[in-house]
């Protein structure tokens, strides 16, 4: 019985090791900038209510249209991996971005292209974040399940 259990354990370990080796795709990992763990550095941006408290609804609408257009552009350029609003909270946090750039300075330059941020209607906190290099791959699936664009 012990021999049978040991044999089964060895087979299971062998299959597990084979599966891990067989699924690694070096070309994909390299194309995504993955390190040995399949991870890479990003810049996490927390958007919060800015110092410019506009009351002109037309101007606010115009700035948010520009904000959404800029999001689309950054996605197409491969710079924006994740974006989305946050629920109401006591910290005035409005949303998040995960930018596929290495430095805070690169992130700041991209954020200045957003009219809602450059107008100070939104302000950004930026933090280095280590996450899966495969994150950008979800976007192709999202496009297949999105019925309406915001």
UniProtKB/TrEMBL annotation:
User: What InterPro entries does the record tag this protein with?
Assistant: Dimeric_a/b-barrel, YCII
Signal peptide residue numbers: 1-21
**UniProt keyword terms in alphabetical order:** Signal
The source's superkingdom equals Bacteria
Membrane-crossing segments per the record: none
All copies of domain YCII-related, residue ranges: 44-129
Q: What is stated as this protein's family in its record?
A: Belongs to the YciI family.
Q: What is this protein called?
A: YCII-related domain-containing protein
Supply the source organism for this entry. Answer: Chitinophaga barathri
